[in-house]
Inverse folding.
């Protein structure tokens, strides 16, 4: 999710499409939050690890 967010963010900035930039930032933030919460050992949505 982090990689997809980064790709969309870069594509949105290069092509000047604000919707891609917004979606990219949202996916990037959600991906980072899931990685941080998953690394603390807490289960997310019934799963022990988020892959």
């Amino acid at each position: 999710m982090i990689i997809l967010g980064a790709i969309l963010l870069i594509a949105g900035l290069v092509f000047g499409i604000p919707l891609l930039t917004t979606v990219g930032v949202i996916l990037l933030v959600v991906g980072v939050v899931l990685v941080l919460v998953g690394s603390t050992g807490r289960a997310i949505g019934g799963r022990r690890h988020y892959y």
